Amino acid sequence: MWSKSRILAIIAPLVFHVDAVSHARRLPPEHSRALHGRNYITEATIADSYDFIVVGGGLAGLVIASRLTEDFNTTVLVLEAGESGDTVGDSINPPARTYYNSLIGTSYDWQHKTVPQDKAAGRVISWPRGKVLGGSAAINGMYYVRPSQIQVDTWKGMLEPSDDSAAWGWDNLLAGMKKSETFTSPSSDVQSLAKIQFNAASYGSNGPLHVSYPGFMFSVVGNWTPSLEAIGIESAADPANGKNFGGFVSTLSINPTNWTRSYSKSAYIDPLPPRKNLDILMSATVTRVVLGDKNSSGNVVASGVEFATSADSAEKVVKVNKEVVLTGGAPGSPRVLMHSGVGPKDVLDAAGVPLAVELPGVGQHLQDHLAAPVTWESKVQTGGDMHASGSDFSPLAMSFVNSAIAYINASILFDSSADFESNVASALDVSAKTLVPSQSSEVVEGYKAIYTATQKLTSQGAGQVELLLSINAPKAITIQAALQHPYKFAPPTPFLLNKLIRSATSQGRVYINSSSPFDPIVIDPQYFSHPADITLLREGIKLARRVGNSAPISNAFGAETVPGPDVSSDEQLDAWLAGVASTEFHPQATCAMLPRSQGGVVDAKLRVYGLANVRVADSSVFPLSFAAHLAAPTYGLAEKAAEFITDLYKVSANSGTTTAPDSASQTGGPGKNAASRICSSACTALALTAMFSFIVSVLSAL
Ligand SMILES: Cc1cc2nc3c(=O)[nH]c(=O)nc-3n(C[C@H](O)[C@H](O)[C@H](O)COP(=O)(O)OP(=O)(O)OC[C@H]3O[C@@H](n4cnc5c(N)ncnc54)[C@H](O)[C@@H]3O)c2cc1C
Ligand SMILES: *[C@@H]1O[C@H](CO)[C@@H](O)[C@H](O)[C@H]1NC(C)=O
Ligand SMILES: *[C@@H]1O[C@H](CO)[C@@H](O)[C@H](O)[C@H]1NC(C)=O
Ligand SMILES: *[C@@H]1O[C@H](CO)[C@@H](O)[C@H](O)[C@H]1NC(C)=O
Ligand SMILES: *[C@@H]1O[C@H](CO)[C@@H](O)[C@H](O)[C@H]1NC(C)=O
Ligand SMILES: *[C@@H]1O[C@H](CO)[C@@H](O)[C@H](O)[C@H]1NC(C)=O
């Protein structure tokens, strides 16, 4: 870690404008390897049983494991399919490496793919997901954007009113999000150059996750909000406080003390001392939850979890004393449930998995954001130019990632949004009858509920399309438009109905088609299966063009290169979009928190219906798509999940917090101390290797 004086020495000479960037090359921060690995175990040292088994050491899983083990009497095992990521810190930690040396496409990425998408030119679309401690938060773009209050409250309104559902809604999720955060204001230079507006009081100040802004800024970012205002799109002065409408420069999950990515591993796990009650096992793919007898109220009790290193290796079972918490993410959690025999009967029968609990909603209700770019030649230097020229690899320069953003409502997108809304509204019943990829009446009811809630958000002015300013390519600037509230689960507008019914057999879901947990999961988002989706994204692309032609940002833009001037009519735009639109990496709702009568998978306390002691606590439970990025609400959800569990078991409060250094009294037993000694010499070697490969990559970039 850097000393404070060294950081100041580096910050001081830099001016926050590309013309004045320091050209000095600097080594990356020394990685504090000794901190890592203190709670890692091997299969040889795994215990027979744990109080809680967390399935997936991703964003949510590590938050929950860290919080539950604040009580020294509670034992937790984390099983993570991927590796720790400690040997590839140079790809994970410097924020800009998310563009220039990403782990996407490597063994740290699940490399999921969709099945061919009929309405997206038959394309197979790649669906990256982190396969590493920290999960997708280790490879994501670090945008840290909260949803708006009306969206979070609408989700609560979809639950059966009860003491349990009272735990949700804006105030509660906000408390969870704040609990996870420590906010740091931007430097005044960065703030004024980028015209950043924020209200520090809207953020947390004592949580493990760092939320801040880059230490380095480009002046074109400061042209974002004025150019939006020039065409009638207001700026959001306090976007974290429930109103994220309009344009703003968002916070990022960046640690400004050493300009590194902040994510669940670096925030919630690495700083911990050895905790003898926390074991983290990597290269452990959970193959199923082992289900046993029913409890006296008829719910099936999980007795343990089965895992294996690979398809060829033997499975092992570890027993659970209290609960299994599934945190495998939107593809991972429903997959484990289905392989455990919990899911839609037709899917399990076809895959050859014996049915234990029929739960038709598992894997259904999938919603995702879909994005496409408008790109211009750039007249100003971009982050991509700076990187391509190898001019500055200082930690400060490497802290720049894109963050200018806007959420646009239907009244901005359409001359008359009433026409759009009434088109969508008029076809609800037809859709529910023809477009749901399940025979289950419960799932159909869920589609109707999500559909109605989405309509309500449209009329209340929630963001329908997101615009993002991206300057990470050389000689080019992009404004990306992304659909936020997909209507793909919704009906076709009447005039297109006949055409759509023919392709209505499958839609928006993930499922298994084999009994081997190591075979790929089948992902079918049914992108653009509803005309409303292509209509919204097309209007978003037109708006992106208008922003690009609006001063002052237009001064930075040369000719439009993508899609280019030849693509202009609605028909041309729709055909182009079908060929290029891609995921914005925000899949959700595959284990939706909805009433069981609506194809729900978990109740308001995140308990899987029909199971006595299994929860899902990750991004797969949000039933309704947010106009936001998913990390912030998932941190909030994970904090709430940990509270539900500790409250239930009345875990004694005999410890410090995750942020405070833990007291010496909990320092681990002899096994753990031995393990950490082994790690510290091995980790020094790893640090040297990592530094060596960084130097090689700098030299080869010359
Ligand atoms: C490329 C990319 C860019 C993104 N950019 C942003 C962004 O800028 N801002 C933002 O807010 N969000 C972004 N996201 C989304 C965000 O990172 C995810 O929504 C979030 O990480 C989801 O958290 P999670 O805990 O549900 O799942 P994950 O973080 O994906 O964690 C799931 C974990 O479970 C493990 N796992 C799965 N199945 C098993 C199994 N059977 N056994 C053992 N382990 C298993 C996985 O390996 C993984 O570690 C991005 C995502 C991607 C992929
Ligand atoms: C950055 O600092 C945090 C503590 O604030 C630490 O956990 C993390 O390991 C550091 N990152 C690196 C790469 O040194
Ligand atoms: C610790 O946990 C054990 C087993 O779960 C339990 O019997 C015991 O009462 C707990 N002790 C405290 C102090 O909570
Ligand atoms: C939509 O956004 C515009 C511009 O920010 C705003 O003036 C308008 O009130 C919003 N519409 C609704 C219904 O909230
Ligand atoms: C499962 O579905 C995928 C994607 O459609 C396909 O490639 C694969 O062959 C299927 N597997 C089985 C066993 O049917
Ligand atoms: C059975 O499990 C359910 C769900 O967790 C729980 O509400 C119920 O209290 C359990 N019943 C008994 C008798 O343990």
Which helices and strands appear, and what pairs or packs with what?
Layout: H1 4-11, E1 40-41, E2 49-55, H2 59-68, E3 76-79, H3 89-92, H4 97-100, E4 112-113, E5 126-127, E6 143-144, H5 149-157, H6 170-180, E7 181-183, H7 188-194, E8 209-211, H8 224-230, E9 246-249, E10 251-252, E11 254-255, E12 260-261, H9 264-269, E13 278-281, E14 285-294, E15 300-308, E16 316-326, H10 329-339, E17 342-343, H11 345-351, E18 357-358, E19 370-378, H12 383-388, E20 404-408, H13 410-413, H14 417-426, H15 428-434, H16 441-459, E21 465-470, E22 476-483, H17 497-501, E23 509-511, E24 522-524, H18 531-548, E25 557-562, H19 570-580, E26 582-583, E27 614-616, H20 631-649, H21 670-700
Parallel strand pairs: 1-13, 2-3, 2-16, 3-13, 7-8, 16-27, 17-18
Antiparallel strand pairs: 4-5, 6-10, 9-20, 11-12, 14-15, 15-16, 19-22, 19-25, 19-26, 20-21, 21-22, 23-24
Helix pairs in contact: 2-20, 6-20, 15-16, 18-19
